[in-house]
Write a structure and sequence with these properties.
240 residues, mainly alpha
């Protein structure tokens, strides 16, 4: 099976002779390098020795910081999802406290935030995908599923709050699948851009892409299109 284009492994800034990196800087380097290598070589094809070498530290540091290779995988690959969720929860709380929000406005902002966050961290998504079906990653993949279940449970709680506060344009009984399908779509478009987004002269701008994603979700989840678009097919038909 052909693999999607990978981002080139990032190069760490050189360390000045005699300087010492902080624990936080070393941890960040390990997370960045691990996400890159897991995305490019898979879980089984990436060793802790290789990660340590690329991060310019020791294997001992990896085990001291994370405990195991599988825990490093979880932190490097799933960390961006929970980083987004923390930011999104703050955005959601602020939005719910204001008047005038609509299903369309909150969906558009949610799509934009999640797309941009995942696009910046696309190697985390690719690493998660590459772990699926890898016998060596069974334990890490099982932990990833558990943490993703937690991720979606938190999203569902926000969805129910939104529904109770008047965002009743969707079927609350379907939330457990709605969020997974919606974000699965955004995962694919952000991480597999070269496969699913037209290139060259036909390539949409980021704003056009986000508008189309929002329209697709509004149509599928809420049964409505963005304002002014529903009549376009009829007008086109009348012009023929």
């Amino acid at each position: 099976m052909a693999q999607p284009p990978q981002d080139a492994p990032r190069e760490l800034a050189p360390t000045r002779p005699g300087s010492r990196r902080s624990t936080a800087a070393v941890r960040t380097a390990l997370l960045e390098v691990a996400a890159d290598l897991f995305a490019g070589k898979g879980y089984g094809g990436t060793s802790t020795k290789e990660i340590a070498l690329a991060a310019r530290t020791s294997e001992t540091t990896i085990y001291r910081q994370f405990g195991s290779k599988s825990e490093l995988f979880a932190a490097a690959v799933l960390g961006p999802f929970f980083g987004f969720l923390t930011e999104y929860e703050a955005f959601f709380a602020e939005t719910m406290a204001q008047d005038g929000w609509t299903d369309e406005s909150i969906t558009r902002q949610s799509v934009e935030q999640f797309y941009k966050y995942l696009h910046r961290n696309r190697n985390a998504v690719l690493a998660l995908m590459s772990a699926h079906g890898d016998p060596e990653s069974e334990g890490a993949a099982r932990e990833a599923v558990r943490r993703l279940d937690e991720f979606f449970a938190r999203l569902n709680r926000m969805g129910m709050e939104r529904w109770h506060r008047g965002g009743g344009g969707f079927d609350a009984r379907k939330l457990r699948l709605t969020h997974r399908f919606m974000f699965g779509l955004i995962f694919s478009v952000s991480a597999l851009d070269p496969w699913f987004v037209p290139g060259g002269w036909d390539r949409p701008t980021q704003e056009e892409l986000l508008d189309e994603l929002t329209d697709f979700i509004m149509t599928g989840v809420f049964g409505q299109r963005q304002a002014g678009e529903a009549a376009q097919p009829q007008r086109a038909a009348e012009g023929n």
